[in-house]
Amino acid sequence: MPRARPRIRFEMPPESDPPTAPSEQGGSDMSPARHPIHFGFMATVGVGFALLLYFVLINVGALLAWIAAALFIALGLDPIVRWLGRKGLPRPAGVIIVVLILAGLVAAFISTLIPTIVNQTTQIVANAPRYVDDFLNSAFFQSVDEQFQVRERIDVELAKFFANSENVTGIFGGVLGVGSAVLQGAFGALIVLVLTLYFLASLPALKIWAYRLAPRSRRQQVQRLSEEISSSVGSYVIGQACVALMNAAVAFIAMSIAQVPFTTLLTFVVALLAFIPLIGAVIAGVLVSLVALTVSWQTAALFAVIYFAYLQIEAYFVSPRVMQRAVAVPGAVAVIAVIAGGSLLGVLGALMAIPVAASVMLLLKDVFIVRQDRA
User: Do residues 69 and 192 touch, judged by C-beta distance below 8 A?
Assistant: First the structure.
């Protein structure tokens, strides 16, 4: 029998695994998002945009401050317009009435108080040398001068100052700087007035447009928070204006009783400073007391007793009742906010500090704290 031929089996080699990515093999990930060149380019672009934003903020910072002031004033006048609307008056008519009243107050102020303020300011400048001489010839200064030779040191320093030509040139440049600052302030006031009218007239449309930027699921919550914040800011502005007017009225009465000179000018200064919360009224009282010292210490003491006694009444009885519907900010937070706002934007920042702090506290309470409670 023939021998059986051996069978040869052909086996296919096992399929090799697909090549793994470099990251799976332990190598570095060279994807475009993590490529060193790509990362360096994107970092450079980010730094460039940050520098551009800083440059824009530095050069248009005054314009941003004017816009913030106009929006702040518009939010303060909006409750009056809405109150007129609840009485059945259309919003355009309410805006016109509020604007006419504001323009009438400004015109009355310019026509009546500005000439008196300019006249009294001129008198202060003209009498400044006499005030200095009276102080230098007073018994208090003479006793101090005998111990420390203050007048001799002042004369030496003034001689050194005026001997340097750069200092004289700096004085001339400072005068020009004051003039340009006055012109810039007048232009800024005009811009703020125009923007205030625009914001006041189109505030509902601006709110609707801003609400559309929020996601649809959060739009109702955003609208509720925005309305509450705008209402509190408006109430705060009106309340602070009432407190400032009462403060100025009390200061005028106290200065009339104590017979402090330049009453009209100082009353205007007190009204302006009283708009600054917490510290404005105190600064105004100290300033008027220093002016009253030019008459006698009895005049300064009488004014200080009346005015600072009213400040205690204002702090415990007037301000809480006027501000009860506006904002509720703890004392420590209010002080920190006023200092921070004054450091960033000056007087405007100090005025806006407390409403901004109240808005931030409202957002923290309504968004983060409520969310944590639900979690």
Answer: yes
Domain-by-domain residue ranges, the chain? 60-213, 221-369
CA angle 19–20–22, rounded 5-degree value: 125
Beta-carbon count within 10 A of 314 CB:
18
C-alpha to C-alpha distance for 43 and 49, rounded to whole angstroms: 10
CB atoms within 10 A of CB 299: 20
- Backbone φ and ψ for 51, nearest 5 degrees, come out as -65, -40
Say which amino acid occupies 330.
P
Q: How many residues does the chain have?
A: 375
| Phi (first) and psi of residue 202, to 5 degrees | -110, 20
pLDDT in tens, 280-332: 888 999 999 988 888 888 888 999 999 999 998 888 887 777 665 566 666 66
Residue 326's nearest CA partner among 254, 253, 230, 255 is 230
- What is the phi-psi region of residue 138: left when phi exceeds 0, alpha when psi lies from -120 to 50, beta otherwise? beta
**For residue 88, is it left (φ>0), alpha (ψ between -120 and 50) or beta?**
left
CA distance linking residue 314 with residue 323, whole number of Å: 11
Q: Find, among 294, 300, 303, 298, the residue nearest to 127 by Cα.
A: 294
Is pTM, for the whole model, over 0.85?
A: no
Q: In this structure, what token pair is assigned to residue 328?
A: 């509720």
Distance from C-alpha of 120 to C-alpha of 112, rounded to nearest angstrom: 13
What does the alpha-carbon distance between residue 67 and residue 242 come to, in Å, rounded to a whole number?
24
In angstroms, the Cα distances linking 291 to 297, 299, 308 are: 10, 10, 16
Higher pLDDT, 108 or 172: 108
